[in-house]
């Protein structure tokens, strides 16, 4: 079980882990041992995620989410398979946590009377400066 919050957990049956060879440091070990982890989590078909959270996560325009709604995380930062596995799970938990809080709705505001007057006054001054440049009489 992957514990996200006190009330939200993801069962291991919903996570698909695949171990592949990684690039980077490790010497000959890199060529022999599959230490990188590719973690797949089906956001669209998950039974453990509440519907609003699932909708928010799928609405994110993240390149790690496939067209089928599967989140694919690749972890190869560390040299050991176990540490990369923990890293991938931590990143999955962080991604799901980011979708837990509903964004506050934007409250539309209008510019104040003073800000409108300042803007129009600045435009008027700039217009006067440009007009005076164009119509110089040098006689």
From TrEMBL:
Keyword DNA-binding tagged: no
EC class: hydrolase
Single GO MF annotation: peptidyl-tRNA hydrolase activity
UniProt EC number: 3.1.1.29
Regions annotated as coiled coil: none
Annotated spans, Disordered: 102-139
Amino acid composition bias (Basic and acidic residues), ranges on this chain: 114-139
Residues of the Prokaryotic-type class I peptide chain release factors domain: 21-37
Matches recorded under InterPro entries: Pep_chain_release_fac_I (IPR000352)
Keywords noted in UniProt: Hydrolase
Name of the protein: Alternative ribosome rescue aminoacyl-tRNA hydrolase ArfB
């Amino acid at each position: 079980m992957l514990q996200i919050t006190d009330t939200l957990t993801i069962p291991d049956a919903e996570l698909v882990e695949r171990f592949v060879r990684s690039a980077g440091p490790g010497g000959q070990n890199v060529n022999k041992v599959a230490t990188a982890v590719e973690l797949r989590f089906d956001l669209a078909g998950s039974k453990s995620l509440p519907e609003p959270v699932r909708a928010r996560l799928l609405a994110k325009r993240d390149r790690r989410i496939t067209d089928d709604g599967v989140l694919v995380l690749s972890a190869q930062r560390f040299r050991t398979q176990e540490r990369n596995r923990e890293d991938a799970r931590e990143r999955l938990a962080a991604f799901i946590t980011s979708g837990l809080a509903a964004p506050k709705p934007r409250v539309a505001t209008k510019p104040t009377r003073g800000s409108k007057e300042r803007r129009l006054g600045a435009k008027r001054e700039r217009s006067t400066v440009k007009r005076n440049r164009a119509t110089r009489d040098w006689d």
